[in-house]
């Protein structure tokens, strides 16, 4: 296939995919569950208002939001999913209330009589009582009574009732998480509404709730709908068919390309420019962030077994789990993104051979901006969760409550400005190379497109506001998480690795261009609309479920032949003696192939089909995918890119192979042990519990604090130790390049 046809195909894929994504995004806006003016009882009592729901959502965000349990399955894993927890407790309380209304005690009734009350309870909860004309939701007298009971229960849990101290410890929720009774009243209203969305049937007569009958709980009649089974089966069939087509294409277009390898390292005598040398401080900051992120992860994991302390130290009083987890996730994004951005700044002048005027100044200004955003956003998150900010100030400066974009809106805007500045610096340096009409222009153009996308698509996180409907906020959040992190970062990674091999003379530019364009087309064909698989149960229309199931299956297709890419990279690492100087960056690219196949491929598709995600969304199976895909793929790629830059900045000596080798293997083996020995077994057992007893049970303290589950949590320690040791050795190696202990004899 010619380069021109590939460009046309890429343009068609992107234009059509984003058109569909935006069209059905509009559908999400139109069909979002209603936020009424008020919720009333049959007697006319006003239980809470629509403004209470919105303010309650902000209160929930201020305590950490999705870092303290989850809503609609999205969030952290130690505390429950509050909608599943609320729904099950509400259903049990409703049975007691309905029986009490008839002068009976539910627990003393016969099985036959209990069945009657169960049906009455389902009818009471599932019937959609929203009145569009009056813009109200009406609760029955029994449900209104239960609402007050549920509000009292969560008030005791999140405030300071001593009888809830054990449960708070199991949930890793500090005493006095919410200090103001009025704030607690508002959050109880938000919990009630978000649960109403999960159990109220859509007004279209399909007998399916707004969340497609999620969370699973047979007691209330939440069971998988027919569409879940249908589209799950279709996604598997589509996957098999597309894999066959990809294998056929690969076989028919396979080329045993011969490349005349250079006799010496083509980059050996390249003189780094002042701006390229200025990138070194970015790598030092990445090293610091890696260590801090590792410590935050250790603390967060330990909260699973000791919810209010760290080996007896009452850490939750000044560093609660919601903060340590927020920092763990946010710092991962910061250090990975920084390593990639540093590589881009280094490669710009290296590719063009041109150092623009004031380029070093721009690199230094961007560095200062990075320090301000990282430090300011982490501080703001702490202030917000510790309830030291008002609800408006918390949104602006503190904790937004949404996973992966926890940082306050001001810091979010400043980060976007930094990304735009990075893009400008990149384009300034690349302009001379882009003007040349040589064979590298196609790969350079794709590199620029990916760079523009990295800067632009982060702006999707600004499309929702402080009190935007949760279903709509989730839609835009996944634009950032899926399209920005999982989408165009992937394209950027593919282009950069191809460019590096071409610069080393190991690949022909024409072949690399065709390969990268084809890979990008295949990846984005499923990746853009695959965004929808994250929001199957986030109160979105059924069409979103169908599209998400279909196109998320296509995301896995390019990963099937990734073993070939890994083998190809391995053979390149053995192709000529001088390439040994790049052994560890290339080994990182090989490791990426492994983690892409295992983390994004196997573990990713395991939770992608709707019927699978129905039972295991938000369980530790999600954490397995998250760690192996985010750190295993993007993190190790960031490390590989840093090592490539460091090789260019320290070109004259061989490296301490023992030190960097141990770091590489400990990081990869530690991650594998951590995931397979602890997190995966926990996720599998949770999945079984969800299928057998309901989603609420799989996330409950009753299940998660059994001896078996706690033992499995402790089994994470060996993998954590290996991974942490590997990261520490990596940082020691980077420091040693400056001090000399990581350098050996001259090349």
Quick one: overall form? globular
Strand arrangement, largest sheet? Answer: 2-1-6-5
| Amount of helix | 55-70%
Low-confidence stretches: none
Q: Beta-strand percentage?
A: under 5%
Q: Tell me the distance between the termini.
A: 42 Å
Radius of gyration: 27 Å
Q: Helix segment count?
A: 27
Strand tally is: 8
Main sheet?
4 strands, mixed
Average pLDDT metric: 92
Structural class: mainly alpha
Summarize the topology.
Elements: H1 3-30, E1 38-41, E2 46-49, H2 50-62, E3 70-71, E4 74-75, H3 82-101, H4 111-126, E5 130-131, E6 136-139, H5 141-158, H6 165-171, H7 181-199, H8 226-252, H9 274-278, H10 280-302, H11 321-352, H12 359-385, H13 391-397, H14 409-435, H15 441-457, H16 470-503, H17 509-527, H18 542-556, H19 562-573, H20 583-606, H21 610-616, H22 620-649, E7 653-655, H23 657-693, H24 695-698, H25 701-704, H26 707-714, H27 716-739, E8 743-746
Helix pairs in contact: 1-17, 2-7, 2-13, 3-4, 3-5, 3-7, 5-7, 8-18, 8-21, 10-11, 10-27, 11-12, 11-14, 11-22, 12-13, 12-14, 14-15, 15-16, 16-17, 17-18, 18-20, 19-20, 20-22, 22-23, 23-26, 23-27
């Amino acid at each position: 296939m010619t380069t021109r046809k590939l460009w046309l195909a890429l343009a068609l894929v992107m234009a059509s995919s984003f058109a569909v994504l935006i069209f059905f995004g509009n559908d999400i806006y139109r069909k979002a569950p209603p936020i009424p003016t008020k919720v009333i009882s049959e007697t006319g009592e006003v239980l809470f208002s629509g403004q209470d729901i919105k303010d309650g959502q902000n209160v929930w965000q201020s305590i950490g939001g999705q870092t303290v349990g989850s809503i609609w399955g999205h969030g952290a894993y130690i505390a429950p999913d509050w909608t599943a927890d609320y729904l099950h407790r509400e259903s049990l309380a409703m049975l007691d209330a309905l029986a009490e209304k008839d002068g009976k005690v539910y627990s003393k009734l016969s099985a036959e009589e209990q069945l009657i009350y169960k049906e009455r309870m389902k009818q009471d909860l599932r019937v959609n009582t929203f009145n569009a004309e009056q813009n109200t939701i009406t609760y029955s007298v029994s449900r209104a009574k239960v609402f007050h009971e549920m509000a009292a229960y969560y008030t005791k849990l999140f405030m300071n009732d001593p009888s809830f101290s054990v449960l708070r410890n199991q949930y890793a929720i500090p005493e006095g998480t919410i200090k103001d009774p009025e704030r607690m009243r508002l959050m109880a209203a938000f919990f009630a509404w978000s649960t109403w969305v999960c159990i109220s049937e859509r007004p279209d007569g399909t007998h399916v709730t707004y969340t497609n009958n999620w969370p699973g709980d047979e007691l209330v009649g939440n069971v998988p709908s027919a569409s879940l089974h249908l589209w799950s089966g279709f996604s598997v069939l589509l996957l098999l068919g597309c894999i066959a087509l990809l294998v056929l294409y690969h076989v028919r277009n396979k080329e045993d390309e011969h490349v005349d390898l250079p006799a010496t390292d083509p980059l050996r005598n390249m003189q780094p420019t002042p701006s390229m040398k200025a990138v070194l401080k970015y790598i030092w900051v990445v090293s610091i962030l890696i260590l801090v992120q590792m410590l935050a992860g250790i603390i967060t994991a330990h909260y699973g077994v000791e919810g209010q302390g760290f080996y007896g130290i009452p850490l939750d009083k000044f560093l609660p789990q919601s903060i340590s987890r927020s920092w763990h996730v946010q710092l991962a994004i910061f250090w990975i993104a920084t390593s990639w951005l540093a590589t881009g700044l280094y490669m710009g002048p290296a590719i063009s051979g041109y150092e623009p005027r004031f380029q070093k100044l721009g690199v230094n200004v961007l560095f200062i901006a990075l320090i301000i955003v990282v430090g300011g956003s982490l501080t703001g998150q702490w202030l917000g969760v510790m309830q030291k900010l008002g609800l408006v100030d918390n949104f602006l400066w503190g904790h937004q409550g949404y996973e992966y974009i926890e940082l306050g809106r001001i810091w979010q805007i400043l980060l976007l400005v930094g990304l735009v500045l990075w893009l400008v610096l990149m384009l300034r340096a690349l302009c001379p190379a882009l003007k040349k009409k040589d064979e590298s222009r196609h790969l350079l153009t794709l590199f620029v497109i990916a760079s523009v996308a990295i800067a632009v698509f982060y702006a999707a996180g600004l499309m929702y506001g402080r009190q935007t409907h949760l279903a709509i906020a989730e839609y835009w959040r996944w634009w950032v998480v899926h399209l920005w992190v999982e989408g165009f970062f992937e394209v950027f990674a593919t282009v950069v690795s191809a460019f590096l091999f071409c610069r080393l003379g190991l690949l022909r530019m024409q072949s690399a261009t065709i390969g990268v364009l084809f890979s990008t087309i295949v990846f984005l064909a499923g990746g853009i609309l695959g965004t929808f698989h994250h929001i199957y149960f986030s109160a979105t229309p059924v069409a979103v479920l169908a599209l998400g199931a279909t196109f998320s299956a296509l995301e896995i297709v390019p990963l099937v032949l990734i073993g070939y890419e890994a083998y190809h990279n391995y053979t390149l690492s053995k192709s000529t003696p001088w390439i040994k100087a790049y052994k560890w960056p290339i080994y990182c690219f090989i490791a990426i192939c492994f983690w892409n196949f295992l983390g994004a491929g196997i573990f990713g598709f395991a939770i992608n089909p709707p019927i699978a995600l129905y039972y295991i969304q938000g369980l530790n199976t999600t954490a397995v995918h998250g760690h192996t895909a985010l750190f295993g793929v993007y993190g190790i790629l960031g490390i590989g890119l840093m090592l490539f830059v460091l090789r260019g900045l320290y070109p004259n000596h061989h490296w301490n192979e023992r030190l960097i080798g141990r770091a590489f293997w400990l990081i990869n083996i530690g991650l594998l042990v951590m995931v397979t020995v602890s997190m995966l077994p926990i996720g599998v057992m949770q999945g079984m519990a969800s299928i057998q007893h309901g989603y609420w049970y799989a996330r409950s303290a009753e299940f998660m604090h059994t001896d078996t589950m706690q033992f499995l949590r402790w089994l994470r320690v060996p993998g954590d130790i290996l991974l942490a040791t590997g990261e520490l050795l990596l940082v020691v190696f980077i420091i040693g390049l400056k001090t000399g202990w990581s350098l050996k004899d001259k090349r």
